[in-house]
Design goal:
Oligomer: single chain
Radius of gyration: 18 Å
Largest sheet: 10 strands, mixed
Distance between the termini: 62 Å
Strand content: 5-15%
Order of helices and strands: HEEHEHHEEEHEHEEEHHH
Length: about 270
């Protein structure tokens, strides 16, 4: 079902959100993905929206960039996660850490590919220079939709050179007419579902706190030994103030090794 977008642009702005209405409802988003077209999907604050499709070229075309440009694989389905084990150069502890970071931190990971052959065809669009890009955010209200599409490719919901869409109105204004945009107003459970994103040590909380400024996900690089580097700043690390504090949080929470310690151990 097509709908008209009625909210005003709120990109990267705090304060209470207006009604978040897109151009399709949930069945419309399901139909669009089933036809192989791109769909803009919402995320909870402080994350921005994403654009997804069953084909990587479709994601790139929606963003107005070369269709062969690498995109992230949406690592949301158990079958996809199981298949990744055969393609990645991660020991069992590091693979388990990857699964936890994707599921619990809702971030994006660069993970190492095996060097003994090319990646499988379904992973190749997310691969570059020996690394694969995995997207982990899987908001509970979206899971019934995502479960129907085990293999999805995804990127931030923006046209090249523009900031990612914070809400449906931003996406409707940014993407070409006819692009399917699902807003939270048409997503059952979105008004009550909250999934905290690595809360930082400071800042107002509670029902009266203003919605935080939205950002795309943080991207981490996960090394074969399980150590982590920050690759791109985003919503998750922003809430911790600086890179070092965020990485300390991850090492403490997930018992990830310090990169320097792991390197020293390997060389010794």
């Amino acid at each position: 079902m097509n709908r008209g977008a009625t909210d005003r642009s709120t990109a990267n702005r705090g304060g209470p959100p207006p009604t978040d209405t897109g151009t399709v409802d949930l069945p419309g988003a399901r139909s669009a993905l089933g036809r192989g077209t791109a769909v803009v999907l919402p995320n909870p604050a402080p994350l921005t929206s994403v654009v997804a499709a069953t084909g990587p070229g479709t994601v790139n075309a929606a963003k107005g960039r070369p269709v062969g440009q690498p995109v992230a694989l949406w690592a949301h389905h158990p079958d996809t996660l199981a298949a990744l084990d055969e393609a990645l150069a991660l020991a069992a502890p590091a693979a388990a850490l990857a699964g936890r970071l994707l599921a619990e931190e809702h971030l994006t990971l660069l993970v190492p590919l095996r060097a003994d052959g090319p990646p499988p065809g379904w992973l190749a669009p997310a691969a570059k220079d020996g690394w694969a890009l995995l997207f982990g955010a899987s908001w509970a209200p979206l899971r019934p939709l995502l479960a129907r599409f085990p293999l999805l490719y995804v990127s931030s919901a923006n046209r090249t050179g523009r900031p990612p869409a914070a809400r449906a109105a931003d996406a409707v204004a940014m993407f070409p007419p006819g692009t399917a945009v699902l807003g939270t107003a048409d997503l059952p459970g979105a008004d009550t579902a909250t999934e905290p994103v690595s809360p930082g040590p400071t800042g107002p909380t509670g029902p009266t706190a203003p919605e935080p400024a939205r950002r795309a996900t943080t991207t981490l690089r996960l090394h074969p030994d399980g150590s982590l580097d920050l690759y791109r700043h985003g919503a998750q690390d922003h809430r911790h103030g600086d890179t070092a504090t965020y990485l300390r949080h991850l090492r403490r929470t997930y018992r990830a090794p310090d990169r320097r310690t792991a390197t020293d151990g390997e060389s010794g």
